[in-house]
Amino acid sequence: MKSLLNQKRILDRSLKKQKGLTLISWIFVIAILAFCGMFAFAVVPMYAENMYVVNALKTLAEPGAQVNEMSDSEIKKRIQNFYLVNNVRSDGPQNIVIDRRSKNLLIKIDYENRTNLFYNIDIVTTFQNHLDGDHLSLCCKPAADQRAKH
Is the pTM of this model over 0.70? Predict the structure, then answer.
């Protein structure tokens, strides 16, 4: 019985001494949170901008848009106007390629976005946004992936 009471006292004393993280532990936690914050502030705008690129292609895929009958300049103008309204500023999404080699239309907006994280370390994201004229409902995925499923 006495040994149980002694063990309980020792346990109570050791729990009272444990107050929280040490200074080194706090510095480590804050450094990890700061890195995650820097990473998020660098990556989130790139994905938000790509969301606008996808939405621009989806406006072309809306019912009644007749994208197959539009000329290349009309398609580019509609996409550029969408970019202007939604403040898409980087040069990457401006790479609009319209392929009419086969009977169907294929619009590709493939680009790479690069931003500096710190010093000489960059974050690079690549985006592939495709609109197939025959499969408008499958907007914005690479054409090879779309055609393999059908």
Answer: yes
Helix 23-60 / helix 72-86 crossing angle, nearest 10 deg: 140
- Residue 143 CA neighbour count, 13 Å, CB half: 15
DSSP-based three-state secondary structure for 115? strand
CB atoms within 10 A of CB 60: 21
pLDDT single digits (tens) 77-114: 888 888 888 888 888 778 888 888 766 788 888 999 99
As a whole number of angstroms, the distance between CA 145 and CA 94 comes to 23
Residues in the chain: 150
* pLDDT tens readout for residues 46-76: 999 999 988 888 888 777 777 778 888 888 8
Which single residue is written with the structure tokens 């390629």? 97
d(CA 53, CA 67): 16
Q: Which two tokens stand for residue 51?
A: 């969301």
